[in-house]
Amino acid sequence: MTVLELRETAAAEAEAARTIKDLADQEGRGLTHEEALDLDKHVTEAERLEGEAARQAKLEALEARISAPEERKSKPELANGARIEVVDKTKLFRFGSLQAFKGATAEADAYRCGRFLAATIFGHALSRQWCRDHGVELRVDSEIDDRAMGEGIGTAGGFVVPDEFEKSIIDLREEYGDARRNCRIKPMASDHSNEPKKTGGLTAHPVGENVEATESNQTWGNVELTAKKWVVLTRISNELSEDSLINLADDLAQDGALAFATSEDEACIDGDGTSTYNGIVGIRPLMIDGSHVASYVANPGTSDEWSEITAAMLMAVLAVLPKYARRGAKWHCSPLAKSEVFDRLMAAAGGNTNRNMAEGQPASYMGYPIAEWTAMPTVDAGAALNGKVMMIFGNMEMSSKMGVRRGITLKRLEERYAEYDQIGIRMTERFTINHHTITGATPATDRGPVVGMVGTT
User: Fold this and answer.
1) What angle do CA 410, 411, 415 make, to 5 degrees?
2) In angstroms, rounded to a whole number, what is the distance separating the alpha carbons of residues 422 and 416?
3) Residue ranges of the domains in the chain?
4) pLDDT (tens place) for every residue of the chain, 457 residues total
5) Are 278 and 429 in contact (CB under 8 A)?
6) Dist CA 235 CA 423 (whole Å)
């Protein structure tokens, strides 16, 4: 048991003793023989636990003093450029250009994150000291599910990544990920959150003289968000080269961001509600689930291939989107659809010059931006698109909410890839997506803030 658990158990024993004494006092009598024995037992156990907690606290404090690196009076200095020199004369190099870290402090940020990884993943003593000197906290994540394996031990619970590392992943995730660019992001203070959603407003009624006015009320619903854990598992060489710390941080941030962004996008678009998507139901399945009939427009005739979509079909989708959703509306489709539908139609519309054909078609159609989702359908076969949502038009910030629980954590897995002389790294985050408003108040007839185009044969 940890010191905290020992003290909590001691408090429970003392409270049990107090309950026995209070009961006798309330009844205006002394303790019975059995009650006296029970009270003494609880008091004795509370004193024993309190003493054990005190001894364990002293032991942990002693171990911390022995294992802690010595404080340095001098501070390592970071320099600009490809080479960074610190006071211990260790030279760290960057190989190639940085991809994940950006801005004026990109190299310094990558260096700090590299030191963090060396300290936490590799247990590098110099890097632990460097993090101590420069305020890079080696914070243990208290929310990791397996924290019971060893409270306060980083390899058992996992470390919360520093701000520079998480900011890099967030920036890249928003660069790669379409869900974060188009859904409304809701930071969550706990794993579960209920957000209010207006489902009906006030109504003005005509009224004559001496006639009672008709009352109307606003109606409200809830958007439920329950954040679930998502994991990225990878492995790296067990050999740490100080010359590659910057590149180690850059590669891990880039690959982690891409992996998380891919999972977010796929769950947002095609989630089927199973454990594969952590219970998330995507927007495409929702539109054709039979309960949101007004959420899509079926193409006329045999139009289930990109080459068969006409400008008139796109206008039919655009025309039914409610006016309130048009500000901020976008065409949501795959890169393939953008090329074979929108670019094709604009190229064939006439008025093009050699110059604008060479520069490419703009990423908009009829005045509305085109958002290219890798997770949207990329097939060009009628059978795969028949009866399915081919593309979406509308404002997803009004229809969809993405709940983000906490930052990213890192955990070292020492034994999993030991036979390859490699270290496993597990990165986790918590998020969920709820497409809360696909249609209006009457799903069979009322359009919502998004409208899908469904292929037909």
Assistant:
1) 150
2) 8
3) 3-67
4) 778 788 888 888 888 888 888 888 888 888 899 999 999 999 999 999 999 988 888 887 887 776 555 544 333 444 443 334 333 334 444 445 666 677 777 777 778 888 888 887 777 777 788 888 877 777 665 544 433 333 333 444 566 777 767 777 767 666 678 898 899 888 877 777 776 665 555 567 677 766 677 665 555 566 778 888 888 887 777 665 555 666 777 777 778 888 888 899 999 999 999 999 999 999 999 999 999 999 999 988 778 889 889 999 999 999 999 999 999 999 999 999 999 999 999 888 877 766 766 666 678 999 999 999 989 998 876 677 888 999 999 999 999 999 887 667 777 777 777 777 777 888 888 899 999 999 988 888 999 999 999 998 7
5) no
6) 5
- Give residue 125's identity as a one-letter amino acid code: A
